[in-house]
Amino acid sequence: MGFLHMVAISHPKMARQVLQVQDNIFSNRPAIIVISYLTYDRADMAFAYYGPFWRHMRKLNVMKLFSRKRTESWESIRDEGFIRILQEFSKLFGAFNIADFIPWLGWVDPQGLNTRLEKARSALDKFIDTIIEDHIEKKKWNNGGFDDGDTDMVDDLHIFYTEEAKTNELEDLQNSIKLTRDNIKAIIMEVIFGGTETVASAIEWALAELLRNPKEMKRVQQVTEVVGLERNVEESDFDKLTDKNSWEDPDSFRPSRFLREGVPDFKGNNFEFIPFGSGRRSCPGMQLGLYALDMAVAHLLHCFTWELPDGMKPSELDMSDIFGLTAPRATRLYAVPKKRQVCPLF
Ligand code: HEM
C-alpha cells in the first residue's frame, strides 16, 4: 500500500510460521504516525522496538502491572475529562492517515490529524503529570519510600524513574531498566487504554452476538442457572459455566462449540483462533482481560434477560465494525434489560 510492503496472513499454518516458528524475525511491531506520537515515540511497551528495552519492559510489566492481584481502582478513569481523552485516542488510533503510506503527502492532512494529535497528547500529559506529581509528593511524605501496603502502579514504575534521558539501549541491558517520565506516561496510558477499551469492545461484541442469536443466549443463561438466581456469579463458578464445543460452521457465532473435548483454544497455541495474538509479543494482559470480560458478561447474563429495543429483530442488528486498535462496533449497541435474578443486585 503506497510505499509500504504488506502481506496479509490468513491461514493458521502461515500464522504459526510468523508468530511461532520464525517469530524472532517478526517480533518488531510497526508503528504508524499516530501511534508513534501518542506513545511518546514508542516509549511504551506495546510499540517499543523489539530489543533489550522491550524485553525489560515486558518483564517489569508482567511482574508488576498485569498481575491479577492488581485491583486498584482508578478514580481518574471515571473522570469525564479523562474518558473524553481516551475516546479521542481511540478515534485517532483508528484514523486513516495517508502520510503512513505516502510520507511526502503528510502536509496535506485533510482531517486535521496533526492538530488533533498535539491536542490529545497534551491533554493526556496534563492528566498524567498530575498523577505522577501526586505520587512524588506522597513519596516525600513517606520519607523517600513507599508504604508497602499502599503502593500502586505509578509507585511501582517510579522506583525505576530517572531524570536523565536514556543514552542507549546497551545501558538497559547492562543495568537494570531505567524509565524516563515519557516511559512512565506511555505505560500508564497503555495499561489504562489496554485495560479498558479492549475489554469494553469485547463485552459489547459478545452481547451483540448473543442478542442476534437468541438460542445461544438462552443456552448461556441456562448455564448460569447452575449458580442459581439467589446469588451473584463468582469467579469460582467459571469452571462450571464452561462450554466445550465444535469447530464446524466457523462463521456462525456459537459459543457452545467450545464445550467439546479437544477443541482449539484461544490462548495462542492454536492458530485457528488467536484473539490475544501468539508468540513473544502476545498479549500480556490476557488473564486480566479475560477475568474482566468473563465477570462482566456472566453478571449481565445472570442478572438480566436482554431484548432489542422497539421490536427490532435480531437479524436487523448492524454487525459491522470499524477500523481501530480494538476493531470496535460501527454502531453502539442498545438493548433493554429485564431483571432476572431474585436477590438484590448489589
Ligand atoms: C479482551 C481483552 C484483550 C484482547 C482481546 C487483547 C488483544 C491483544 C492482542 C491481539 C495483542 C497483540 C498480540 C500480538 O501481536 O501477537 C495484544 C497485545 C498487548 N496487550 Fe492486549 N488484549 C486484551 C486485554 C489487555 C489488557 C487488559 C491489557 C493490560 C492491562 C493488555 C495489554 C497489552 C499489551 C501491553 C500488549 C503488547 C505486548 C507486546 O508488544 O509485547 N491487553 N493484546
Automatic annotation (TrEMBL):
<dbReference type="Pfam" id="PF00067">
    <property type="entry name" value="p450"/>
</dbReference>
<dbReference type="InterPro" id="IPR036396">
    <property type="entry name" value="Cyt_P450_sf"/>
</dbReference>
<dbReference type="InterPro" id="IPR053062">
    <property type="entry name" value="CYP450_84A"/>
</dbReference>
<keyword id="KW-0408">Iron</keyword>
<dbReference type="GO" id="GO:0004497">
    <property type="term" value="F:monooxygenase activity"/>
</dbReference>
<comment type="similarity">
    <text>Belongs to the cytochrome P450 family.</text>
</comment>
<dbReference type="GO" id="GO:0005506">
    <property type="term" value="F:iron ion binding"/>
</dbReference>
<keyword id="KW-0175">Coiled coil</keyword>
<dbReference type="InterPro" id="IPR002401">
    <property type="entry name" value="Cyt_P450_E_grp-I"/>
</dbReference>
<keyword id="KW-0479">Metal-binding</keyword>
<keyword id="KW-0503">Monooxygenase</keyword>
<dbReference type="InterPro" id="IPR017972">
    <property type="entry name" value="Cyt_P450_CS"/>
</dbReference>
<keyword id="KW-0349">Heme</keyword>
<feature type="coiled-coil region">
    <location>
        <begin position="163"/>
        <end position="190"/>
    </location>
</feature>
<keyword id="KW-0560">Oxidoreductase</keyword>
<feature type="binding site" description="axial binding residue">
    <location>
        <position position="283"/>
    </location>
    <ligand>
        <name>heme</name>
    </ligand>
</feature>
<dbReference type="GO" id="GO:0020037">
    <property type="term" value="F:heme binding"/>
</dbReference>
<dbReference type="InterPro" id="IPR001128">
    <property type="entry name" value="Cyt_P450"/>
</dbReference>
<dbReference type="GO" id="GO:0016705">
    <property type="term" value="F:oxidoreductase activity, acting on paired donors, with incorporation or reduction of molecular oxygen"/>
</dbReference>
<protein>
    <submittedName>
        <fullName>Cytochrome P450 84A1</fullName>
    </submittedName>
</protein>
